[in-house]
């Protein structure tokens, strides 16, 4: 059976795995984005707090994915929970770092002007600082998503969802008729999903970032 015949015969299962893979990455990125922006907001005004937040999230990223998932299995069990925890933790660094950089890069005169017209601290943050910091934050989200697309495949080690299961099945049966087809299908599926997500982020950027700021 060649690769195209394999796709034709297994397309339903591959689509299901692709959907689960994309869903896991999307949901974990939503959580990582919310946490990352909150951490950035809480720490960007202080040099040491910002450095601590960046260093801590960077340290998490140095832990091998397989090791982290293995450490999580005794705590949260197999399946979805270790996948969600691991992907969320790995997705934090680019969002936290870019949120801090973006918020620190806001022109102080704009913040002073907002203060001068009577805006409260939360109003300045929501209506002035975060919108101006959104381009670097979105860049951090794009970087995190690309990382998580690959890392999510390793979640199959803990019976997690996604295209990693196809790759692991192929690797476990090397030498059999469809082993290479399985690895290739899973790998290409992840690449296609990563490109689709990135295209969606480009569209979101065009819709949410004013042309003057993009320039």
TrEMBL record:
Q: Is Disulfide bond tagged as a keyword?
A: no
Q: Where are the transmembrane segments?
A: 24-44, 51-73, 148-171, 183-204
Topology relative to the membrane, per the entry?
Answer: Multi-pass membrane protein
Q: Which UniProt keywords apply?
A: Membrane, Transmembrane, Transmembrane helix, Transport
Just give the chief location class.
Answer: membrane
Q: Does the UniProt entry include the keyword GTP-binding?
A: no
> Record's family?
Belongs to the binding-protein-dependent transport system permease family.
The identity of this protein, by name, is ABC transporter permease
Give the species this sequence originates from: Streptomyces iakyrus
């Amino acid at each position: 059976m060649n690769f195209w015949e394999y796709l034709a015969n297994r397309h339903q299962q591959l689509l299901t795995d692709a959907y689960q893979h994309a869903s896991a990455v999307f949901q974990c990125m939503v959580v990582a984005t919310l946490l990352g922006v909150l951490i950035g907001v809480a720490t960007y005004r202080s040099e040491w707090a910002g450095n601590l937040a960046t260093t801590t999230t960077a340290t998490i990223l140095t832990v091998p994915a397989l090791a982290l998932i293995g450490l999580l299995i005794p705590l949260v069990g197999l399946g979805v929970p270790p996948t969600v925890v691991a992907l969320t933790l790995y997705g934090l660094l680019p969002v936290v770092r870019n949120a801090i950089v973006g918020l620190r890069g806001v022109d102080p005169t704009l913040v002073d002007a907002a203060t001068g017209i009577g805006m409260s601290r939360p109003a300045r943050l929501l209506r002035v600082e975060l919108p101006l910091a959104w381009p670097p934050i979105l860049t951090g989200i794009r970087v995190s998503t690309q990382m998580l697309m690959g890392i999510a495949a390793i979640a199959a080690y803990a019976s997690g969802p996604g295209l990693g299961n196809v790759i692991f099945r192929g690797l476990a049966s090397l030498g059999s008729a469809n082993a290479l087809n399985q690895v290739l299908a899973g790998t290409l599926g992840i690449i296609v999903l990563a490109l689709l997500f990135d295209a969606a982020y480009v569209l979101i950027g065009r819709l949410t970032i004013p042309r003057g700021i993009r320039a």
